Amino acid sequence: MSLPENSPLQSGGPNLINMEVMRTHSELFRGQCMRLILETDKACKRMQNDDNKRLDQRVRDIQFLKKELELKLEEVIVEIDVLVALHNRVAKAQEACKDPLRVAVVCLEERMKRVPSERFHDEVDKELLKEREIIEGVASLLQRVIEQITEQIRLNRSAKYHLEKDLKEKFEAQGIDNSCALLTTSSVKNQKSQNPIIVLPSLAVTPKQWEDISEINITKAEQQRTNSMSLRALVESVLEQTAADMQKQLQVTREAFQLNIQQIKSAKSQMEDQLSKILCELASQQKIREDLLVAITENQQFLALAKARLDLRRQRPAKEQCHDPAQIQLLAEVQQLTAHINKLHEAVAQSEEEQRALIRCQLELQENIEIKELLNIPPHLKLHGNYKLSIHYLDCLSIRVTAARPS
User: Fold this and answer.
1) Domain shared by 395 and 368, yes or no
2) H/E stretch holding 258
3) DSSP 45-97
4) What is the pLDDT, as a whole number, of residue 390?
5) Which parts form a coiled-coil structure per UniProt (predicted)?
6) Helix (H, G, I), strand (E, B) or coil at 249
7) Stretch 379-404: mean pLDDT, rounded?
8) How many CB atoms lie within 10 A of CB 386?
9) Contact at 8 Å (CB) between 76 and 159?
10) Which of 154-163, 245-254, 317-326 is least confident?
11) Which one of 337, 358, 380, 403 has the fewest CB atoms closer than 10 angstroms to its CB?
12) Any idea what DSSP says for residue 29?
């Protein structure tokens, strides 16, 4: 029986063909692995490079916002310091109102001690009451200003707090991103062995929202700074105006005192003997006539001023033509001034009649001068009446002259 023909490759030994296929497949797989290694290495390096660029860009963004925040924080701090200094000025101005107010009250109380015949509501009382009202109004206004400044300081400090908090968070974020940029594979291996990596969920803050947070803080701080500057300008104007009002009223009251003193001195000089009384009365009548003419001129000036103000207020827009208290006061002032001027004209005419009557009395006294006795004021009367009143007014005036004024 003959055996089948068989090649050596088909003998019962190892299957060389299959082995060749497996080797070829292994070589192909090895080549794929090498390419995969190269691709992954290239991809890792590219991603590392991208990460570094993104981190550098992020650090630059943080630095830019930090600079903006720092500039705004510096401006807010300066504004807070200026407001605090202004607060102290207003507080001192309010404190300085106490002395003039005390002096005005003392003068009113002292004038109530006059003798009953001289205790009437004259121009001096009117100006003193007006002065007290103005000083009390200034003190009340300054108190409201102090409250507004205190509130604005609080708002500025609130803006400062948010800026500082934002800066602190930016500083921490910048430090973390800088640390991320400096991390290497070797440093990560060291940290990996110590602290396991925990993947946290991403926060719900977009880059736009992140930037808007700082922009909102900067905008709010700028708004408070603008409000603070406007308030400072208003307070400076209030301080200037209130000081001017008080100085003006102090001067008007002082002039009223001086005028009253002159009138009292004039009345005192008329307490001479009968002839001297008539002669002094003639001189006084002449002087009072001149004073009346001056008063008429002054009242006419005030009347012209009131009418000018009324004419100017008529130029207001139609919707602003309000019959407000100022308009009522001006109309009443015109009526009162007109009545005063008419009364002054009547007083001038009456003064001329009085002068003619005094001249007749003077001629009659000259004819009977030898039988007339001169009347002298006893020494004890100098402690009463107009003498004491005049001295009291002088004392009040000296108190006012030395009184402190608000700065």
Assistant:
1) no
2) helix 207-269
3) HHHHHHHHHHHHHHHHHHHHHHHHHHHHHHHHHHHHHHHHHHHHHHHHHHHHT
4) 34
5) 52-86, 254-281
6) helix
7) 35
8) 21
9) yes
10) 317-326
11) 380
12) H
Q: Give the residue from 226, 217, 229, 205 showing the smallest Cα distance to 68.
A: 217
Two structure tokens written together for 395: 């004392």
CB atoms within 10 A of CB 141: 16
Question: Is 111 in contact with 201 (CB distance < 8 Å)?
Answer: no
Same domain? 177 vs 287? no
Range of the domain at 302: 280-315+322-383
Give the single-character DSSP code of 128: H
Amino acid at 348: V
Q: What is the pLDDT of residues 33-80, one digit of tens each?
A: 889 888 888 888 888 888 888 888 888 888 888 899 899 999 999 999
Please spell the DSSP secondary structure of 110-121, one letter per residue.
Answer: HHTTS-GGG---
Rounded to 10 degrees, the C-alpha dihedral 222/227/233/234 comes to 180
Q: Give me the CATH number covering residue 41.
A: 1.20.1260
pLDDT at 396: 44
Asked if residue 243 lies in contact with residue 94, where contact means CB atoms within 8 angstroms, the answer is no
Token pair, residue 133, equals 């009202």
**Torsion over CA: 199, 200, 203, 207 (sign):** negative
CA distance linking residue 221 with residue 79, whole number of Å: 11
